[in-house]
């Protein structure tokens, strides 16, 4: 069974903005699914519809085998959502926050305490029990927020940008927690993110969307094959040299399209070996000092940039 199936979904707000425009996607049970897209793509609109806050304008949505519009109340008991703003009460302790959440979901006291202790353990929160919640860092608050959302043992957990603004250590801890949720609790995770690296490292499936509809959906590996051809990278000692060489390439008009990132130029290698030889010869003829030249596999970033332009 699929966890979520979205078919030809449209959402038009009252002001006329069409935030979702014929969107279709599928989420498997037990996977981490990442929704990637530029600002305004419609990610939050979709989360708001899937979590039953907004009504779709048209289209069909199935959650855990049931029609979203016909089974709103049942679906609400099966899911949970950590929105971008955390829903922690600073005046309550960590334990009180967790217990409060368990009562909202009508989990009985004995079960709630058992679950809470196990979640505190799994989420590495026990060392924070003795401090007031108001003193927690943003990363720890977010961790507590997600732990709270797990008290009801949801079958699907929605996370809107769970690691935005986190330092590397907190982000890595959050990645481990998300994997734990999937692997130990068998919860399906539906997350939105701006970070390609995050989608690549965590997800079983990624869906890239733009202007309200999906561009492509697949495993990180299959998406990387999406660009089909490999990429030729030429490395330089600094950014200035990189730019100068890119200008010479444009003037010479020998390549269809080039990209610059850091101190490298990236070229679509339409015919791997031939492109490599042409470019290599040209660089030597023009006596352009480069540090490296190699054919590489596309990264998720290349795929993303290509698709979203
Ligand atoms: N409540 C709303 N009323 C009207 N327009 C909205 C509302 N929420 C979002 N939008 C518009 O819908 C589009 C998609 O927004 P959103 O779903 O927030 O995208 P994302 O989360 O990918 O940045 C944007 O153009 C945004 O301005
Ligand atoms: Mg958003």
From TrEMBL:
UniProt-listed InterPro entries: AAA+_ATPase, ABC_transporter-like_ATP-bd, P-loop_NTPase
Domain ABC transporter residues, every copy: 4-236
An example molecular function term from Gene Ontology annotations: ATP binding
SMART domains recorded: AAA
Protein name: ATP-binding cassette domain-containing protein
Origin species: Clostridium neuense
SUPFAM superfamilies, per database record: P-loop containing nucleoside triphosphate hydrolases (SSF52540)
Pfam families hit by this protein: ABC_tran (PF00005)
Keywords, ordered alphabetically: ATP-binding, Nucleotide-binding
